[in-house]
Write a structure and sequence with these properties.
Layout lengths: L3 H30 L3 H27 L19 H28 L3 H31 L4 H15 L1
Helix pairs in contact: 1-2, 1-3, 2-5, 3-4, 4-5
The structure holds MU-OXO-diiron (FEO).
The site of MU-OXO-diiron has 7 residues, from helix 1, helix 2 and helix 3.
């Protein structure tokens, strides 16, 4: 049985993961309309991963005797200020998600909920990977500058393939 505090923090995370999915979907759609097919593909895949993260929380809460609540989601932005800034925004968002995952780890320990503590470790590892993957994209974008976007757009999917 889940303690109420744990159920609440896990339910709050449903909203954060779902918003992440919508945010990356909005970014993907924007990149698609700007002609960046490769970047769009990377972001569409990221949106799907976030949806899967959200589902993991829904199932875990219910499995543990809680009630997963599907929240309203804030509308993400529709337009973005260039590719470099977009990925800076992705990194900042992932850092925010990492800190909310850390809050869950800390609360699970405080409440002696070792099952939740154990389960959430998957997300701890996932966040390290996600931040590193976005950081490596930003590093490459810095090297390229604003030119060569065509090449970057073509190469980004191979980049994902080598990291995942
Ligand atoms: Fe599910 Fe990218 O955090």
């Amino acid at each position: 049985m889940l303690a109420k505090k744990i159920e609440k923090i896990l339910n709050d995370q449903i909203e954060k993961e779902g918003y992440s999915s919508n945010l990356y979907l909005a970014m993907a759609s924007w990149a698609d309309t700007e002609g960046f097919a490769g970047i769009a593909q990377w972001l569409f895949a990221q949106a799907e991963e976030e949806l899967m993260h959200m589902m993991k929380f829904v199932h875990f809460i219910n499995e543990r005797g809680g009630h997963a609540i599907v929240p309203a989601f804030e509308q993400p932005p529709a337009k973005f200020d260039g590719i470099k800034k977009l990925f800076d925004q992705v990194l900042k968002h992932e850092q925010y998600i990492s800190s909310s995952i850390n809050d869950i780890v800390a609360l699970a320990l405080k409440e002696n909920d070792f099952a939740t503590h154990n389960w959430i470790q998957w997300f701890v590892t996932e966040q390290v990977e996600e931040e590193a993957s976005v950081q490596s994209i930003i590093d490459k974008l810095k090297m390229l500058g604003d030119k060569n976007m065509y090449m970057f757009d073509r190469d980004i999917m191979t980049l994902r393939g080598s990291e995942k």
